[in-house]
Amino acid sequence: MVKKFSKAQEAETNLLGTVKESSTQIWLAGLGAFSKAQEEGSKVFEALVKEGAGLQKKVRKFADAQVSDVTNEVSGKITEATSKAAGAWDRLETVFEERVGRAVSRLGVPSKADIAALTARVEELTKQVNKLNGSKATPGVAKKVVAKANGAANSVVKMAAKAAKRPVKKAKAAAARVVN
User: Are 100 and 164 in contact (CB under 8 A)?
Assistant: First the structure.
């Protein structure tokens, strides 16, 4: 019986040796896998970083192109709006000048051309009167008459301009809204 026990003991020793050897191999395989994972992991990480950098460049180029397109389009619209506003302002100015001119004319205020013609006529008449009287020409009288006429015309123009300030402010606000 002793021999049977020794065979059992021997089998047990073999089994323990086999288990020990297997567990050592499993441990070593795990360490190897861990080492490979670390190596491959850093390689994969570096590959991902490279891909990300390439993708970032592509996205940046695309975004820059889109921003450039939008900027060009907005610039074109601003230029168009500015030219429309300038045209509207010119038309408004012309209409305003015409209306002020008609209003001043209705009030009986002579225009600049009327005053120039009147001045020329007064000077001519003064010369004729002086010829008939035989005295020297006195252009001072004509100048005084012209100065009074100019003063009256200027005061009427000032009154018309003052009355027109409010519509001009409204027109400027409207033009600013068109531009914006």
Answer: yes
